[in-house]
Amino acid sequence: MEKNFKSWHKEKADLHQHKIRPNFHERGIWFSSAGVNVGFEQDGRGEHFLRPFLIIKKFNNLVCLAVPLTKNQKKGKYYFQFKFAGNSNVSTAILSQIKLMDAKRLQYKIGEIGEDDFRAVITKIKAFLP
Question: Which of 15, 28, 94, 95 has its CA 20 to 30 A from that of 75?
Fold first, then answer.
């Protein structure tokens, strides 16, 4: 599959120059500009290269730790399936692709993971870290 790196670089430059960081919190689920990435890293889709992300840790108003989500139902120690309010579909957090993200990438909030599921995600992440 051919990847459109040129369009992403233009979008990324615009985000860097003009985007205002929104107010966000841990447990929030946001469509974020993930971009076009290398190899098996999760890409965004559409004009703004969007992909849903779960905010794991807010370090400050500028950056957070987040994991990408997929609609594909995957199981294993690097995945966590859950449903969130306002969405009847099962979402899967791809825990192995946890990343630091500038809040400028956050486009719009689509929901929030429940407290029990959030604690379970954190437990699974801690289990595979050294």
Answer: 28
Rounded CA-CA distance 72/93 in Å is 10
Closest CA to 69 of 100, 30, 17: 30
- pLDDT category at 61 given cuts 50, 70, 90 is very high
Range of the structural domain that residue 21 is part of? 5-128
> Which CATH number characterizes residue 49's domain?
2.30.30.110
Q: Which of 14-23, 41-50, 76-85 has the lowest mean pLDDT?
A: 41-50
Q: How deeply is 99 buried, as exposed, middle or buried, from its count of CB atoms within 10 A (0-12, 13-18, 19+)? A: middle
Distance CA 120, CA 46 (A): 31
The amino acid occupying position 49 is F
The count of structural domains within the chain is 1
Cα–Cα dist 2/94, whole Å: 23
